Amino acid sequence: MSVPDYMQCAEDHQTLLVVVQPVGIISEENFFRIYKRISSVSQISVRDSQRVLYIRYRHHYPPENNEWGDFQTHRKVVGLITITDCFSAKDWPQTFEKFHVQKEIYGSTLYDSRLFVFGLQGEITEQPRTDVAFYPNYEDCETVEKRIEDFIESLFIVLESKRLDRATDKSGDKIPLLCVPFEKKDFVGLDTDSRHYKKRCQGRMRKHVGDLCLQAGMLQDSLVHYHMSVELLRSVNDFLWLGAALEGLCSASVIYHYPAGTGGKTGARRCQGSSLPAEAANRHRPGALTTNGINPDTSAEIGRAKNCLSPEDIIDKYKEAISYYSKYKNAGVIELEACVKAVRVLAIQKRSMEASEFLQNAVYINLRQLSEEEKIQRYSILSELYELIGFHRKSAFFKRVAAMQCVAPSISEPGWRACYKLLLETLPGYSLSLDPKDFNKGTHRGWAAVQMRLLHELVYASRRMGNPALSVRHLSFLLQTMLDFLSDQEKKDVTQSLENYTSKCPGTMELITLPDGLVLPPVPFTKLPIVRRVKLLNLPASLRPQKIKSLLNQNVSTKSPFIYSPIIAHNRGEERNKKIDFQWVQGDVCEVQLMVYNPMPFELRVENMGLLTSGVEFESLPAALSLPAESGLYPVTLVGVPQTTGTITVNGYHTTVFGVFSDCLLDNLPGIKTSGSTVEVIPALPRLQISTSLPRSAHSLQPSSGDEISTNVSVQLYNGETQQLVIKLENIGMEPLEKLEVTSKILTTKEKLYGDFLSWKLEETVAQFPLQPGKVATFIVNIKVKLDFSCQENLLQDLSDDGISVSGFPLCSPFRQVVRPRAESKPVNPPEGSKPGDPSHVKNKASLRHGDVSEMGTPACVLRASAQPPLRKTLHTLEAILNFKYSGGPGHVEGYYRNLSLGLHVEVEPSVFFTRVSTLPATSTRQCHLLLDVFNSTEHELTVSARSNEELVLHAGECQRMAIQVDKFNFESFPASPGEKGQFASSEQLEEERQEARGLEINSKLDVRWRIPSLKRTGEASVEGLLNQLVLEHLQLAPLQWDVLVDGQPCDCEAAACRVGDPVRLEVRLTNRSPRSVGPFALTVVPFQDHQNGVHNYDLHNAVSFVGSSTFYLDAVQPLGQSACLGALLFLYTGDFFLHIRFHEDSRSKELPPSWFCLPSVHVRALEAQA
Amino acid sequence: MAVCVAVIAKENYPLYIRSVPTENELKFHYMVHTSLDVVDEKISAMGKALVDQRELYLGLLYPTEDYKVYGYVTNSRVKFVMVVDSSNTALRDNEIRSMFRKLHSSYTDVMCNPFYNPGDCIQSRAFDSMVTSMMIQVC
């Protein structure tokens, strides 16, 4: 007895063992087809009784186990069914012979035997034999079941006879001693007559009868016999048989208590046995109703209740039996099987702890040297039993041991497939699922060391199985899920082997389905590298699409009549969470930034990293990156081009690491920060590239302006210079450029700028549109810098303190008021000059000493560069942004445009300064001289011209005065647009505005230009901004316009000619342009002669006589009205006479400014009367 | 005394496991892991008892050829498992009990640390040295 049957259970004690075997050559398929049919007949109700016979079929049974048949009768082979193929009558005798040989093997114990012959036809089949059945083929054998039933009945008859024979054999004087094979030699020469021996014989026989009763379906009887046997054997210390008797008692009790069976779950064999569970249950329940009514044998009920063990007792008795068995080394198999049976019972009783003790015991039962196969079987069954009692971990442990046993080095042909299968079955025991999704929830919690070992074994087994895809999958799983637990060395080893595997079989994202139906989900490497943040990037500012704002505000598309409703606001907020408020453009490269880091202790090479998107056709441009060992957060930008329009969602990214492709979805990534992953893709727009004639600028403009500038150019200009900026517009996109708008924005500067800084003509450029892809258009912008030409205060001071005062009023004082606030903000002011207005004497001297030359009293004053050092710092910069709004293609249809900004940085160097301005009255009242002190602040020789006639050469740092004769202006006639008037609320502003307009007018008249011949640069110089009120007044025509007409000819500066003796008509005409009426006035005409030596001779009564009065009267003149008074003069001598027209003191209105009463002086030349 | 000490969370994953012959750590991992079956079984059997009467000490979980495995469960279902050499006969039940009690109080100290996240692996130095002291006495 050496081969344990691990499938045994307690109720097997009541079965009859029938061996079904093939003889001769018969295909396995056919044999098992018949075997299956035979074994379906496992339960037979015996005729005329309520007893049920259970049959256990085996197709293989070791004959040495049969030798233990006396010890426990269910181990005895009582029936033999042989199945054979026989196609010709010729073979028949041979076949039949074989059947007999087969019978011999189990001959000693067989009750009966059968031979099923398939294929044979003819007369042989006609012979009526009970032990042989003939069937033409394997299909045509309906009577097999019937045959078996008959066979079993015949078995029953033998069994019953044996039982009766043994049971009633009490009187017989000689009871044979039953013994197990290894005992036989022990009893040689024993005194067979001793009481002890007899008792032993009796006890063993009782036990045997008990077994037979149990098999014959007489449970109650068997219990009685077992009890008696136990008593007998206990008294003689026959431990082995005592154990067997106790076990028999237990089995009978188990059958009674658990009619559904104890091994039902594990043994497939039992399934057939439990096909009639309800009936079986009824049959064994005491007092239960049977099909025949109440069980009539009431005495049996009483006995059963008494003899039957309680569930607790069953275990105790099992324990006892096992302890007796354990005394015998040769009974190891019996002990082991008893343990297994007890465990099955305990499993039903749900007493796991005790069951585990039995199992623990079973583990230690040392059988003879087991073959590897038996070891595997043993471990598997232990695992199964542990599973049965709910010890999943222990079960997994043994299953793993079994798996390892499959591939033990001693085995010549390791069963890697079986090993792998068993290993897979251990997974639940180690609470390991092969789905990486289960590991995404936070940190992994489990028995990492144990799980890692198991995974390693899975990898190894699958590799040896010859399935590299599997091993790659397992290895990826190991790396992905156990990364935190791997040591640095292990990480290296694992990745090394992974790379080796993937070189043959790259890892994929496909499900791997094992033959037994287990599905291995793909393992994306979300931790190699670890992604911490995903951010969709907006397009660069120059490519960002912008929506043309339509008049109808599209945002207010809500159906609600309310302006604000919290519900709508809430909805919007939700939407915002998902969608990002910028757009991507079809056909343009879009970027997503990932913050990644490498957890590995070595450089990680990630290849083919790209984006996974949905919603829009997206061409992902994969990147390869190499992350340094244990890097910190590392930005990675993944790019792609949307090919269609719509809403795109970035779902994740894909990588290839160590040869394993991974699709990592963002939803499955733990601890990832994302600011939305959905963005709208709008139709394609053209792309514009700008190149300019100017050099690029290193310094960018202040970013505070909000615009992002793509290109910066810079230029250096002298104040007043104009330069052309040629901009080349190239369409580098795929769509035609259809529309272009250019706007400029001058960044706020403290400088006052005169004239248009930037000007352009768009029409010429637009004429080239639509601009096809790859085509270039040019666009010209004129840059004109005209800053204040007034000079700095400190320079001014030096000049003014020289005391040059031209027309009697301090010219510079109003000028200073303008300049002062600006000067104060600049720290260039020397401390001594903090009070520039002070005409302090010390200061004066100092400046005189400082200035080399100061020629006073001359109209042209040359000042050397006394103030040049501070001037050098007064370099001004002007900054402006040119915005190109352009659109085209399908994006234009959708109402999108792009904005490209060009930053313009202009450094303005001072060219000339007007240090001082003043006026001198000209000979004509309608004209005056404007005196400008021009200072050359450049380092080059410079020429200045005004009204393109006079050219003044100025050396570097030289200051000269130039006089320009100008006509007086009639400012009042300037039209002021009514719209402007309304805008400027305060009169101050209005006045300022007016003054500016005047400045502009004057400047255009003056047309002051400078030229630097050495640099070949020219520019304008503007006097706007230096003209103060006083100067302006001088330049202005008075509102009261006086005209003096001599002989009807207007006389202003030139002398009017007349003849001596002829009366000369003198008319004084007043035109009132002021808004009120003036007058009346009284005028007196005083003639005088100028001797050109400062002496005026007024005593001309002899030379000039008035015709009429010398006093004229003018009536009040209404606004825009005109009035004239007439008189006449008579010159008596030839000569040059001047007429001074004077106002009478009292008639002159005090409130009117004196400059209004500026009458031209009349010069009359009296000539000889013509002879 | 002890050759392996393990602290196992309520959800049956190890919070702390340390064994003396470090070269064969995995063996102890397996041993402690399988012992959890018994612990679970004992706890479920104990479940019916009143909480305050509950005995925290679970006793011998199972003996192996070379080692004995003892268990202890706190009221919060945190398990302590200790493996001792079965050749060490001097070790009585009472000593094992007191060792578990020491372990428990040290574990409580770990829990009192405000910087400790319940459920994380125990990395306390004090706990470690206490376990070491329980192990060192073997040699």
Instruction: Write the H/E string of chain B, N to C.
Output: EEHEEEHH
Number of helices of chain A: 29
Order of neighbouring strands in the sheet with most strands of chain A: 2-3-1-4-5-6
The percent range for strand residues of chain A is 25-35%
Taking Cα atoms only, what radius of gyration of chain A do you get, to the nearest Å?
A: 63 Å
Reported for the largest beta sheet of chain A, the result is: 6 strands, mixed
Counting DSSP E segments of at least 2 residues, the number of strands of chain A comes to 48
Coarse morphology of chain B: globular
The radius of gyration of chain B is 14 Å
Number of strands of chain B: 5
The pLDDT mean of chain A sits at 75
Instruction: Provide a count of the helices of chain B.
Output: 3
Poorly predicted runs of 5 or more residues of chain B: none
Detailed description of the structure:
The complex is a heterodimer of chains A (1171) and B (139). With 1171 residues, chain A is an alpha+beta fold. Chain A has 29 helices and 48 strands. In chain A, the strands form 11 sheets. Chain A has a 6-stranded mixed β-sheet with strand order 2-3-1-4-5-6. In chain A, strands 13, 15, 17, 19, 20 and 22 form a 6-stranded mixed β-sheet that branches. In chain A, strands 40, 42, 43, 45, 47 and 48 form a 6-stranded mixed β-sheet that branches. The longest helix of chain A is centred in the first third of the chain and has 24 residues, at 144-167. Chain B is an alpha+beta fold. Chain B has 3 helices and 5 strands, in the order ββαβββαα. Chain B has helices spanning 25-46, 93-112, 125-136, and strands spanning 2-8, 14-19, 57-63, 67-73, 79-85. In chain B, a hairpin with a 3-residue loop joins strand 3 (57-63) and strand 4 (67-73). The longest helix of chain B is centred in the N-terminal third of the chain and has 22 residues, at 25-46.
